[in-house]
Every structure is written in structure tokens, then in C-alpha cells.
Inverse folding.
């Protein structure tokens, strides 16, 4: 009965996920519109920052949608984790806005720490849902489970980099006059996670696992 009740509310959960992510992206765009740059350099910085936030949110949206389709949100536990994810997504534009509004250094530092914690927690939730697929929850094949084992490790690595970037020394160290080392780690984290996944794809190509898994997910 509980499983049937979970399946009945699944479309509503998926709709809520789409709504929250859509609102987060829209708020990011509104913040960019309301930002008044003082010089050409700030225009470039604001565009780059918006692009980064947009890519991160779209990536998480795409991954969580795929994972939810595979294992289904049926239990109170997974529902609560999904609500936490949506809360963290809703916070993202606010924290990102604090960082990019050229505020006082102390505010920037605290906001950047909270933003790193926010993204790290989001990646851990992706890893949590990936683990449910690895455990065989839902109607998935062994190939899909192996594929998500790779993804789980990538999400955990990315989460670790974001969380480690909260250490104060990464704010104290700057890369010349360009940016803080903390921000550099934020760029490296998703790139390294992607590289790890690609390498595992290449290692598994001889057995045809990645391609077959992606076809089954699609």
C-alpha cells in the first residue's frame, strides 16, 4: 500500500522538482538583469558567474531527473532527501548573489563557504540517489548499476572538493589579482568529476557497458 501511495505522488514530486529548479534558474537571470556593472570588466565577470551557476543547476537538474526516473521516489526517507535537495537548490541563487554582488570581504567569505557547503551537499544527495540505483532499487539492469557506480564515485569526489574548499586557507590564497583559490577549486571540482567519469567510460568501452547503460536510461 505504501509503495502504491508513493507511485501516486511521484508525478507531483517530479513537478515540484521541475518547478523549484525552474524558479532557481529564473531568479538567477533576474539577479543578472538587476545588476548594474560599473565597468566592462564587471560585465564579463557577471556573465561568467551567471554561466557557471546556470551550468551547475542544469547539471544537477538533469542528473536528479534521470536518477528519480530509475529508482522512483517511493519511501518517506527518499521524499525527505528530495525535499532537502529542493531546499538547497532554492538557496543557491541567494548565496550566489551574495558572492557576485561585490560585497564586503567578510560577507563574501561567509557566503562563499555556505555556497560551497550547499553545492557539496547537493552532490552528496546525487551520490545518495546513485547508490540506491547501485543497490538495485527500481527496475534497472546490472549494466545500469555499474554505470551509476562510476557516477556515484564522481559525485562523491566533487562533493569532497566543494566541502574542502570551505577551509579558510583557500580564501586567504589568491591567484594573483585574478581570483581566490576557493573559486578555482569550484571550477576544478566538476571538471575533475567529468574527467573521472570519462576515464571510466573509456575503460568500460571494451565491454560495451557505458553505451549500453546510457541507451537503457534514455
Amino acid at each position: 500500500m505504501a509503495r502504491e501511495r508513493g507511485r501516486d505522488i511521484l508525478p507531483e514530486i517530479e513537478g515540484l522538482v521541475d518547478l523549484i529548479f525552474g524558479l532557481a534558474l529564473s531568479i538567477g537571470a533576474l539577479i543578472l538583469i538587476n545588476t548594474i556593472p560599473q565597468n566592462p570588466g564587471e560585465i564579463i565577470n557577471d556573465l561568467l558567474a551567471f554561466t557557471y551557476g546556470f551550468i551547475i543547476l542544469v547539471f544537477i537538474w538533469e542528473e536528479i531527473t534521470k536518477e528519480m526516473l530509475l529508482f522512483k521516489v517511493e519511501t518517506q526517507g527518499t521524499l525527505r532527501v528530495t525535499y532537502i535537495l529542493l531546499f538547497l537548490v532554492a538557496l543557491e541563487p541567494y548565496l550566489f548573489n551574495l558572492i557576485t554582488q561585490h560585497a564586503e570581504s567578510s560577507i563574501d567569505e561567509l557566503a562563499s563557504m555556505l555556497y560551497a557547503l550547499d553545492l557539496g551537499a547537493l552532490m552528496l544527495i546525487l551520490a545518495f540517489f546513485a547508490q540506491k540505483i547501485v543497490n538495485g532499487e527500481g527496475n534497472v539492469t546490472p549494466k545500469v548499476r555499474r554505470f551509476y557506480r562510476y557516477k556515484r564515485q564522481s559525485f562523491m569526489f566533487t562533493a569532497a572538493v566543494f566541502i574542502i574548499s570551505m577551509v579558510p586557507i583557500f580564501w586567504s590564497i589568491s591567484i594573483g589579482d585574478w581570483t581566490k583559490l576557493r573559486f578555482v577549486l569550484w571550477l576544478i571540482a566538476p571538471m575533475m568529476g567529468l574527467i573521472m567519469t570519462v576515464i571510466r567510460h573509456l575503460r568500460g568501452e571494451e565491454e560495451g557497458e557505458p553505451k549500453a547503460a546510457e541507451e537503457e536510461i534514455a
Remarks:
- Residues 2-217 form one domain.
- The first helix runs from residue 2 to 34.
